[in-house]
Amino acid sequence: MARYLITSALPYINGIKHLGNLAGSMLPSDVHARFRRLQGHEVLFICATDEHGTPAELAAAEAGQDVREYCDAQFRIQKDACDGFRLSFDHFGRSSNPPNHELTQHFGEVLEKNGLIEERVSKQIYSIDDKRFLPDRYVEGTCPVCGFERARGDQCDNCQTLLDPIQLINPRSKISGSTNVEPRDTAHLFLKQPVMQDRVRAWVDASTDWPALARSIAYKWLDEGLIERSITRDLVWGIKVIKDGEVRPGFENKVYYVWFDAPIEYIASTIEWSEATGNDWKRWWRHTDGANDVTYIQVMGKDNVAFHTVSFPVTIMGSDEPWKLVDRLKAFNWVTWYGGKFSTSEKRGIFMDQALELLPSDYWRWYLMANAPESSDAAFTLEQFQQTINADLANVFGNFVNRITRFAASKFDSVVPDGGAPGAHEEKLAKEFAERLAALTRAHEQMEFRKAAAELRAIWVAGNEYLQVAAPWTALKTDRDAAAVGVRTGLNAAAIFGILAQPFIPDAAKTVLDALGVPEANRTWPKPDDAGVWDALPRNHPITPPDVLFKKIEDEQVAEWAARFGAG
Ligand SMILES: Nc1ncnc2c1ncn2[C@@H]1O[C@H](COP(=O)(O)OP(=O)(O)OP(=O)(O)O)[C@@H](O)[C@H]1O
Ligand SMILES: [Zn+2]
User: 31, 175, 375, 426 - which has most CB atoms within 10 Å?
Assistant: First the structure.
């Protein structure tokens, strides 16, 4: 048994997440956590909301709420949506909770002691009418790179260039709209990342089992050369900068920058978990407390990679403390929505709460993972969604289970039939199954979700083909024993299919396994060479046909959703 620490990129707090966010971080990490648990490993799966920074303040202002009140409400909404999607976090924390404050302040102090943080005076945009400095998104203006007139202080949405507010042409306050702004001197803390350049590069060089996307982004940043970054902002909402137990002089209206504190929340959320459950968090995070045998996996979309391969490692390594670093980093490209981006700010695409109003979570989970944006961006279309669900879940998996359980109910008294012996058809099925199970297991272990879904689908298809040739309904007319073998094999196949489906579609899998009376203890991941799977259900053991597992998606539904969500 091994130990896996799995973290999903933290969903930002400014509103419910869309299906792109789900597919690029939380869902794949959940599928992997479920898979590793089924293999019998010890898993700790951690997530949290990322709550600081200007977007949260701006969203709260737009909602007419105090920022704390806004974050409290949004946290609830996000947590409910995560539960609705069956995301099996061991803990879903909040970056605004006390453990993250303490730990972020700890890292700040240690890094300064180690010579990696320096206080410096720099020019920031000050709004005379608002009587305050304007960090990041509090300023808008013309992009110095592409001329886009609504570029934000931290980034241009038109050309994606990362910006400093001071670079904007014709800056104006996002709060009052005032252009009565000027650069003024103010002190900030700078993280001296260049000092760590060689150590970070050596660590990336050694991380040979990261997927290509993660490595290439890390090298791009390293090749461009790490820069000194300001890690504080002129804001009130956030984590205070402390020196010798007091607010740092001159920093009364400043907090740590959100990208400094957010990844620290992976650890702090684990501390929240330990406080809630009495478990020991250190054995997951500290090499001196037993974390040496932990494999740490991070999952995220591509825009987060640099912060996880370079910035956060600078914090961790720079502390010279025995913290665990990521071992495997799985990064995703974008899920796109009809040629554009899913967007929270522009409310474009389908959001997690809306999706659950339309269909149960398994439908979405399956489609998003079977079409995961792994080697390139992946288009979400309602037409392809319909086609995938109807083909894979309704016709192949659902139909198999319903057919075989109903036949067993009507012709074999709702029990697993005894009698007969396996022949050539069963042998062929078992052989194909063993090969595909090995491939499916490998794909899951390598976190290749599309491949895993394709192998699982192929296993279901093999089951259907088997039923086609074994045809117990025909055999029953002449040879009850032959029909019994077909039904028994079919029911055992349904059980195996359900077991293997658990990481992707946990609800439907549970329905199948409950209907077949498979005990919890027997729902673990099988070994490819385990021939016993075909005779695992006890003979004469009662079963109940489940209700229809997956309803087909009709053309009218697609048309209605397309109109509602602006598709096409
Ligand atoms: N369209 C997408 N496809 C796949 N992953 C995405 C997509 N959009 C965001 N992500 C990932 O989702 C995770 C959570 O994102 P976060 O809450 O920070 O929102 P975001 O990146 O600001 O997206 P948006 O601007 O659309 O709200 C991150 O790992 C991010 O990379
Ligand atoms: Zn631009």
Answer: 31
